[in-house]
Design a protein that fits this description.
The protein is α+β, with helices and mostly antiparallel strands. Helices cover 61% and strands 6% of the residues. The strands form five sheets. Strands 4-3-2-1-5 form a five-stranded antiparallel β-sheet, with helices on one face. Residues 210-222 have a biased composition (Basic residues). Residues 207-242 are annotated as: Disordered. It is a multi-pass membrane protein.
Length: 1210
Amino acid sequence: MEDIDEMGTKVELYVYDLTKGAAAMMSQILIGRHLDGVWHTAIVAYGREYFFGPSGIQSIRPGSTELGEPLRVEKIGDTFLPYSVFLEYINGLGTSKFAPGTYHLLRLNCNSFSDEVSNFLVGCGIPKYILDLPEEILKTPIGQALAPLIETLANSASAGFTVGQRFVEPRIQREVSPEYQLLNTAIEEARLNSIALEARRNELNEKLAKKERKKKKKKKEKRDKISRESGSESNSTGYSNSVSMADSEVAEMQPTNGDVAAEMLPSDRVLQMEADERREAEERKRQRDPPIVFKDSMDVAVEFEAFCNLLEGKLNDTERINLDELRQYVLENEGSWALGDNFLNFIGRILYDKSLVADVRVKLLNILAIAALKDDVILLLHQDRREHTIMNYAFDIDRHTVEEQLPLAQFMANMFENLSSSEWLLYISDWQHNNQNISNIRVTTKVAVHSLLSESSDLQVRGVAIIHNIACKEVKTVVFDDVVVELTMALLQYFNGNPSEEYLYASMKALARFAQISGQEVPQLIQMIGPEPNKFRGVSKRVDEMIDESCINHRNIVSEFITTDNQMSSKDTLENGNHVEEIVGKKKLRVQYLIERHIPIVKWLPKYSRFYAISDIIAGITLGLTMIPQSIAYAALAGLTPQYGLYSSYIGGFIYVLFGTIKEVSIGATSLMSLVTIEYTRDMPVDFVVLLTFLAGCVELTMGIMNLGFLVDFISIPVTSGFTSATSIIIIISQLPGLVGLRIRSESMVDRIRQLQITNGMPAITDNTSFLLQKLKDIDCSWVKHKNLRVGCFLEKTLWFLSISRNAIIVFIASSITYTYYQSGNSLFLTAGTVKPGVPKFKPPPFSTQFGNVTYTFKDMCSHLGTGIIIVPLVAVLTNVAIAKAFVRDGPVEATQEMLTLGMCNIAGGFVSSMPTCGAFTRSAVGNASGIQTPMAGIYSGIMALLALSYLTPYFGFIPRATLSAVLMSAVIFLIDWKIIKVLWKGSKRDMFAACSTFFISLFVNVESGLLFGTFANALFLLYLSARPSIEVSTVLGDKYVIVMPEIGLFYPAVAYLSNKITQIARKEAKGIYPVVVDFQRLQGIDYTAAQGIEKLLNSFENKTQLLIFLNVNPSVISSISTMTAAKNFKPINNENDLAEILSETDKKSTKSLIMPTFKELTEKTILPERSSIDTIKNDYSTSEEQESLLINNVNNKELELTAINVNNK
């Protein structure tokens, strides 16, 4: 019998709220019943936290889940069972009732497990309010309506749900030996007798397990690396692999007779393993590829002095201490122990305090970049794991100035100097930042990609360094699973800029490593996207080696095989069977890539978790509360009855969840689309609106199929801002009649202003109330948090909820007042009118209609809609892309896919009597603030719209028109962008002209004319830049030549301008003598006219005997010039070494041209040479026979003249 301590072991229940307090605020409104939370529970006993999930029974350190600290801790009781008994009991549950895959969201969940274990340990279960929660929710009307969806989520939960904790590795069931029981009895006695010993034991065991797992993974990586290098494929089965690994583990765990380490204490084993790890780390550091770092780029003493001067008088006592700690660390080379626990608070204050000048942050980042080279910087980084101050700032690199981005990227590159800090940069544990799940590897990737694709050459150098360091770091392959594609695409885009040999080599080396790590994924991307790496073959020997090492050229073999496939004999086909398999694999990858690109749900749905589902449900319901009153108001703005706005609010969300790419986009009626729609359907029946919706969808779908997404790029942000601001003002003025009782009927804004006649000045209470409610979310609740954190958080979330649901609150209150007056027989307000109840029938759009006594055919309806068939879809796509650019931070904007998706949404909308739809700025902002995770939120907001159509339409008739006007005005007034005028006035007068012209033409003429004029003005600016490219000119005195660098591509509008400029530079700057070097490094393309212009320029320089050299010419440009011209004297060079050789060969001739007259001058009588020097002149000037004859005749004539003069003188 085991001796059991009389005190027992404490058993606690950790209770978490999965909604983080949202259920307490919103449950009464959403389901009609108050809920304190949606509970997740775990049992804490024997120093561990145990809970149940789709992956089975899991255990972690208490309180270390991603859910944070538990909301409450309830003591269940004390247990007197030995730990060994409990362990066997848990193992039994893990293979039976609570085995992996048995999890069910409603019937067998974490709370069921907690109740089961609690009864076993202490004889009583967990509180009843936790166990009864699912049944309580399902009893509500909305719970019953959503029951099938919840059941679907419950059945699919085990496919991919994790809370993010570290799981216990599966145990191998084996017979318990007596020695094992004795050992556990001894451990149990020691643990129960001393709490300190128990904590130490757990710490050491956890550390040992971590070391063992790391060692096994390293061995596996080493085996994988050897197998890849040898090129042999493993034929062993899964059984043999598992047996061999098990044997190796047993061999490691069972020591030999003379093995002393087996008898070591756990602490001694840890010390020995740490020493072995240090030796292994040193060996890896010696053998690894050296990282690219920046050690001597600045003087840290100078930077620190400037940093202190900028902060003089701006720090408190604590911050001054932190500043002194930084000085000790970077200037006096003290260890990181000199940095206090609150040092990261000081760093965060400098980085995020916008009252400080930007130069302060630049100096701090420069200092940190130098500190990153120290071997103990990892201790500073581990402090950052609590608040993620540095990494959050780095993730927002695209929001900082270029001056701040440069030292930030240098800091990330220098972190790869040491193994520990470089491994820290590649951690995959994630956290939340701006409603996004990010991790260290994601932050590092974003900084690398942003820097590499920046317009700053210095920042590009840092980006190359970071990507090279990432690729050459020996890490687990799984680290690159999510980022290797993004890094590869960035490298491929960088290659289009013709980098120099040094950075090309580093980039190609990184690409080769990515190709080895990812298998077929990276070569497939190169094949589909390009450019072909063989384009750079011949740049240098080491670049060629990297191209060969990456095995990228293998795709050329596959291509050749495809082209000759029909000509192969059966024997050749058998010999090339491996090529066939690879071709099939590449085709499958191609198909998979296309499916994921055009049906994005296929990519993110397998990763859909319960956390995502709960977040999307909350965001979807919040969007529904915003969308329903807005849709009713937008329908009124388009001249339609309220139900048509709701018809537009559900079908788009259902389709966008399948094909949409931006999670924040909420498809439905918008103020902008309503305004544009009424421009073409005013005073016409609703059939015209429905047909316009269908035709707009057809146009959008056609544009998407033709890959015309790039057209949206020609509409700049200033034009979009001017267009949006003008339409917002038009909407506000159009809503004044409904708001304050104005009698206005006119089609233009000018006429509306002229006809202002106030007849019934109704107070704009609803409008002012809406504005006030919107500002509630801006109230600072920090002073309440300091006094009571829970009350402060609750108050902050309540104000936020009231702010985002302001429209629903206003509509509900105003409708209730109207209904009350209606019941008493009074009609105080003008209402929205009767609303047709029910969901619309699914029917084809009307291709003909009758209005009054006139019948309109399809041709007549299209003729009446006119340019609206093009303008409406263009505005819709522009809006969606603008939303994407506003919210997408770490990826490209797929304009073509948005066209396809919007097309399908509007085509489907034509079958349910919808008005034209697109994304809405206001709803997208609400979704982003609500924590939306995927487009699935559109399903829930669409369900709310359907419920409103089914049950609430009788009450929509009581909504006052003044309320709808207030909803519209409060939604669009914040879209007026006044700040951009000041920015454009200081930064770009051209963009200001485009924005202002778009604004005023849209405001005083019509919106489509304003948009077209602004786009046309931007296009003219682009043509002007193409015709007048800027040219950099510099004179190199050492080698005595002039270098000319055109900024952009050379096409026909710029040929004459560029030729004249180069000729002028050759005459003035080069003085007609020095060579002129034209650097085509930034030149990416050329056309026929430009090629002919280069040929004429070469001939002109050749006639003047002045040297014209072309440097860094793109291979495609060389090919174009060779094909389209007959210029034999066009000899481009690729690097500056060849340039130096050419200049050295011509140096003598250039020197002689400075001190000797030209041959033409020699033939003049004033400076004719003596007869004795004629042979020397022929050698120096390489004269032809004709020139030699002319020179001799002139000399003879001069001698005769001199003889005659002498005779006369005598």
